[in-house]
Each structure stands twice: as structure tokens, then as C-alpha cells.
Amino acid sequence: xxxxxTAMGYALLAVVRVLTGAQARWxxxxxxxxxxIYFANHQSHADLVLIWAALPQELRSITRPIAARDYWTASxxxxxxxxxxxxxxxxxxERKGDEDPLQxxxxxxxxGDSLILFPEGTRGFEEDPQPFKSGLYNxxxxxxxxxLVPTWIxxxxxxxxxxEVVPVPVLCSVTFGEPLKLGPDExxxxxxxxxxxxVMALREV
Amino acid sequence: xxxxxxxxxxxxxxxxxxxxVFGLLALATVVQVxxxxxxxxxxxxxxxxxxxxxxxxxxxxxxxxxxxIMALVFWVGWATGPRVAIVLFGLVSFFVLREFISLxxxxxxxxxSLVLAFFVVLPVQYALVWTGxxxxxxxxxxxxxxxxxxxxxxxRNDPHRFLERNAKLQWGIMVCVYGLxxxxxxxxxxFPGWRGNTAFLVFFLVLVVQTCMLVQHLAARGLRRPVxxxxxxxxxxxxxxxxxxxxxxxxxxxxGLTPFKPLPALAMALVACVAGTLGHVVMKAIKRDRxxxxxxxxxxxxxxxxxxxxxxxxxxLAAPVFFHSVRWTFQL
Lengths: 205, 332
Fold this sequence. Notes:
The structure holds 2 protein chains of 2 kinds.
Chain A: H1 2-20, E1 23-26, E2 36-40, H2 46-54, H3 57-60, E3 63-68, H4 69-72, H5 76-85, E4 89-91, H6 103-110, E5 114-117, H7 135-142, E6 147-154, H8 156-159, E7 173-176, H9 188-201
Parallel strand pairs in A: 1-7, 2-5, 2-6, 3-4, 3-5
Antiparallel strand pairs in A: 6-7
Chain B: H1 2-7, H2 10-37, H3 47-80, H4 82-102, H5 111-131, H6 134-155, H7 162-185, H8 199-219, H9 237-253, H10 262-290, H11 300-303, H12 308-330
Helix pairs in contact in B: 2-3, 3-4, 4-5, 4-7, 5-6, 5-7, 6-7, 7-12, 8-9, 8-10, 8-12, 9-10, 10-12
């Protein structure tokens, strides 16, 4: 089973590179094996695959993307890929009962993994990302030592817009920016706005 | 010299040519490495001149690197036979079209048309080359695809900038797929009474156009007042003439290895060079319209484009003209 997952990983990587180039641009920080949260704009389900492909091999194994449970467990193949290949952390998009939706993320960070997070919560279709949800702030508060890396994914919405199944080859890139720190006593809204601007600033570089 | 070359079999002639090309490239690389070791002289101290020189050096390096890659690719293509060459050009088409589309904004309504272009039109066009359907292959894109693409777009119900979006897509397919597929299509031409390898015609075209571009590029240095400064600051009538002269002469020299006599070879080389260089200017105009100077280069920071289209755009526009001129002239 492990072998199949590795083979699938390489196959996916090849497909993603042929279609998009999946170029990583380390603009504000080097690729480094420290505990990080990469937070990015979200325009397509392929975002997750693209960041995963853009990371170097060594970081890919310790970085876990967040996947929406309802979409990524819809079929057995999707579920198998997200668990075995991406080693994803599932989150509920809709809140159920009084369970904390951040619980799986906290568990993952506790065990030392890095995360890929889309703080908009859902995919946006505008030029600018939507306002960020408070999950990022809560995690930053709880794990002050984890490095927060803003990330901009360029062009991926053109590869596979909502409602389409066949991807189209368009060059994409992933830009990693300068890490962000939560200031002492920084209000939640200020921090989230600052984080969003940090992500958007990477569009121009 | 001429009689010696003529006494060889076509296979040996082409091998000889490859030896010559790789020899020249090796020589150029050595010269370039030596130049890069040269110390800066005192007058160059002012920053602008130094930067310009550095820029030129980088420019030369990238030019040489692409020449190496292209020569290697053609050697592999020749050594492994026409089938591999067709697949190879199909792949180049794919990557070049990807570059073109990345820099031309499309909307969500264009998605199906793009799928059609990449995964139906491109493979079918190369399959037609593979199976040797010359008649269908020259009309497939200008006639059938010309209708199919806007129909698919229109059915997606998005009138916003419809003409512009479709024009971009049509142009991309015409240049990147139709144009480039004419290069391996030269393998389909059969010259009565000529036993040589038609793969050589591909090499003739590429070598002549590339030489012309190279000479033009080098001759433009130091010239001022380009013809159309807003489009290209390296296009001058004089350097253009020198490029054509070099390309044409090379064509005439290679005549012994082609099905042509020297004079027709000169004419064919000139046709290819005129089409290639002017096509390159047209592609430059498109790049300016998109606000980039290179399909790779400056835009690399955003899209990761490798700039492959910069290198083959002359060929894309020269190949169909060359192909049909040869067919017309020799009544094939």
C-alpha cells in the first residue's frame, strides 16, 4: 500500500509539473525544516495539490495540507489520495455541535507537523481574497513558536475553475513571503487584516 | 571539397554536418568562456557601460545555450528517425502553447475551448502529420478548428470581450500548433529522383533561419534608430539585410545536401529567412501588447515561463511558408 502511495505521489507530481510548472519562489524566507504554517489564498481545490508540489521533497513529508472533509472524502480515490499521499488533516467546513473545528489542526501542530492553511475558509472568485477567518489567529495565539509564512498561489484558478473536471495547462507559481509574527496584545481583527495584506502583497513581487 | 561531400552517402553527409555544427558550437563556447575571464578595462568603470556589457554577456550565454539544446534535440531527432521527431515537436508545441496561454488572460468561459485546444486539436494535428495526411493537415486548423473554438466559447454564454478572447486563442493555436507542426511535416515531402533523407530538410530550415536570426542579432549591436522602436529595438533594415544574406548564402552552401540546386536553395533559404525574421517581429509586437519583453525573462518571476517561445517563434511562422513554397515550386 505504501508503494502504491509513493508511485501515486510521483505520478501526481509529474502531471502537476507538466500542466502548471508548479514553480516555487522563496521570496521572504528560505525553504527550511522548521515548524511552519503556510497560509495562502484559495481559489481552487487544486491549490492544495499545487503547494504540495511546489514544496521541496524534504519539506513535503513534514507538511500537512488542510482538506475540506466533505469534498476530499467524497470518493474513495480522493480519500485515499488525501490520506496516503498528502497526509492531509481533514476539517469540517460547517460547524457541527459544540466541537471545536480547529481540534484536528491543534493535534497536528502538537505532534510537530507543519500545516498548509487556507484562512478564507472557502474558495473565492474575486481578484482579492476574502476576509480571513479567525482560525489562523487562534493557532498563532496558541502556538507562538510556529513560523507563519504568507503564501500567494498565482494563476491556479485558470487551471481548473469551479465546476470543471478537466484541467488546462497554464503556468502557475507559488510565492512564499516573509514570515509574520503575532504582536503582543495585537487585536484579532488587526492581525487577520495584516495577514491578508501580507498574502496579497506577494501578488506583485 | 564539393566533390568529396558529393561522394558521401546522404547519411554520411548529415553526420558530417552535425560534426561541423557541434564543432562550431564548441568553438563558440570556448571563446565565450575566455571572454568571460577577461578583466574589465579602465574605461568601463562607469556603471551603465558595465551593466550593458554584463547584460550582453548574459544574452550571449543564453543564446549559446539554446543553440546547444536545439542542435542536440535535432541530432536526437535525426538519429532516432522521423517518428520521434514528430513526438518531439508535439511536446514542444504543448509547452509553447502553455506559455502563450499563460500570458494571455482567459476567462472561465474559455475553459472548454482551452481543453479542446490542448487535448484534441494539438494531438489530432500531430496525428495527421504522423499518418501523412498532407491535404487534411494543412486545412484542419484554419478551416475546422477556426469554427469549433468560437462555437465552444459561445455556448458557454459569456459575451465579455468575446472577439478578443477568441482571437488570442486562435492565434495561439495557429502559431504554436499549426506553425510548428509544419516543421516535422517536411518529412512527408517526397522528391522524385532524390534518395536523400527528408529529415535533412528540417535541419536545413532550422539551421538557415537560426543563422539568419543570429547574424541579425549580432549585426544590430551598435546600430541606432530601429525601424519600429516601440516594438523592437533590435530590428534595423541593415542588420536584417545582413541576416538574410548570411542565411541565404548558408542555404546555397548546403544545396549539395538538399534536393535543390544552389540557386533554388538560395531562394528557398531566403523565403524561410524573410518569413522567420518578420514573424519574430510580429511575435515581439504581441509580447509588447501583453506588456512583457520576453515570454520567459521578466515574466519568469510571475509565471515560471521558460521562454521557449522566444526561441522557436521565428520557426513557427517560417515553417508553413517554407513548406508550401517548396510544395508549390516543386509541384509535389
